[in-house]
């Protein structure tokens, strides 16, 4: 049977949890659930199977799937009534009602724990009317008014913030009302020479641009185009809100690509009093209204704006895998961490009042 199902049997030694870390981790979660039940209910042993049911039908942060899906290959059938506030029913003659109550209670506790532990914030987003799309473009200026768009990355709350790279033929974004257009091979080779000139001293960004241009010449991907981005933003029925970090250029690019009918929120980290005290701010890019701000304290830094890497470092202590500087996928991941922080402090209910 193991052969048929492609199962590898591995034997573990006692007192060495590292051997089967995945299982041990699930025990940790189960213990957390049980601790909540023990506090509330003294018949926790009866609730054990419902706690397990919750665990098995909850999206797992490391796999992005529920354990149920991974075993049965389809989504579990959970009655939608679980998402309503539980209405305790104490009629013990009626087993069905009691079962429903306990399942609702278990679901409520599991959900509260998840929110409390700030592990799966997208889990909450799923239940509201808006979706949040984090977006970042990589580009370089050709002259004072024209830009070359070379890559980007996009991710959204409906998709649990799985990052999609925007890659393909670079776009020439000319000044004024001239139409945007994909670049020809000749223009791309000329652009490479331009990059050496524009970023003569900025080694890091120069190498990132050159690397991306070389990839773009060879790639078969075609996600860096207005149609793909627009379809991505319009998918599903929820209101789309675009989240950018220091996103004035990204906003201009979206406008050039004729993608403009969306709420755009901009995150920045600004020394507003010019005394090296930095504030994390969220503003509506279109009407320039400040939505919220958080004091991040004194930081020794020249200049009044912190960049993405500096801001992320203040907020998140996770060691993310960084491929190379200015990789849009890394930038989207960092922006997500910062957006997470804002949502946790400001809360969704307040935020969506500014997203119409
Ligand atoms: Zn982070």
- Tell me the radius of gyration: 25 Å
What's the pLDDT, averaged over the residues?
83
Q: Tell me the helix content.
A: 40-55%
Q: What amount of the residues lies in strands?
A: 15-25%
Number of strand elements: 10
The helix-strand sequence is HHHHHEEEEEHHHEHEEEEHHH
Say which molecules are bound, naming each kind only once. zinc ion
Structural class: alpha+beta
Beginning-to-end CA distance, first to last residue:
55 Å
Topology record:
Blueprint lengths: L20 H20 L3 H13 L10 H6 L22 H23 L3 H5 L4 E12 L5 E10 L7 E3 L4 E3 L7 E2 L2 H14 L4 H16 L7 H9 L4 E7 L2 H9 L6 E8 L6 E8 L5 E9 L6 E2 L1 H8 L12 H19 L1 H4 L5
Parallel strand pairs: 1-6, 6-7
Antiparallel strand pairs: 1-2, 2-3, 2-4, 4-5, 7-8, 7-10, 8-9
Zinc ion binds next to helix 11.
GO molecular function: nucleic acid binding
GO biological process, one term: DNA integration
